[in-house]
Design a protein that fits this description.
Helices cover 18% and strands 27% of the residues.
């Protein structure tokens, strides 16, 4: 499975599987949970929003810091980031170094494993961002927790192997270019 091309059409809104609910999370604050069993590969979130440049993204970060808000973003191309609309239920998806979701298409998170009702839906923030200013302390509790998640994690060999060809288009293009130059 490979989707290394640029994202052509970006929907405005985010779609979330109808059995997804926001609940209190042991990881951090609120999180996303699934109310029914779903098999691996089931689409759970399809992202939508607005494409911005890195400079525009940093302006949004500054405004968010000043207003006490958060900007959800995904690397979709060279100097292109998808910013989700404020208020999207997808905002409640927590990070885990052992995520229950990963990319199944350029703008779609799917179940990484078979999920039972009540499972928390998590993604690895380090495999969706290439913004070098992004850094967060991780408290996911996974056995292989990296402790600190950054916008440079896409460069880690073990993540490239684990998420082989399951990256947002912007990061897959960077990984492919880096490998071609080696």
């Amino acid at each position: 499975m490979s989707f290394t091309g640029a994202v052509e059409r970006i929907p405005i809104d985010v779609w979330v599987h109808p059995a997804v609910r926001v609940r209190c999370s042991a990881i951090a604050g609120d999180g996303l949970f699934i109310d029914e069993a779903v098999p691996a590969g089931t689409p759970l979130i399809r992202f939508g929003g607005t494409a911005v440049t890195t400079a525009e993204l940093h302006e949004l970060f500054e405004d968010a810091d000043a207003n006490g808000t958060y900007v959800d973003t995904i690397a979709i191309g060279p100097d292109r980031h998808l910013v989700l609309r404020a208020g999207s239920i997808a905002h409640y998806g927590n990070h885990s170094c052992d995520p229950t979701m990963w990319f199944g298409a350029p703008l779609e998170l799917v179940a990484r494993v078979d999920l039972e009702p009540g499972s928390e839906l998590t993604s690895d923030y380090g495999v969706i961002s290439d913004d070098v200013t992004f850094e967060m302390t991780c408290r996911c509790g996974a056995a292989a927790c990296r402790q600190v998640i950054t916008g440079r994690d896409w460069q880690l060999e073990h993540l490239q192997l684990l998420h082989k060809e399951r990256w947002p288009a912007g990061l897959q293009a960077r990984i492919d270019a880096r490998r071609a130059s080696e």
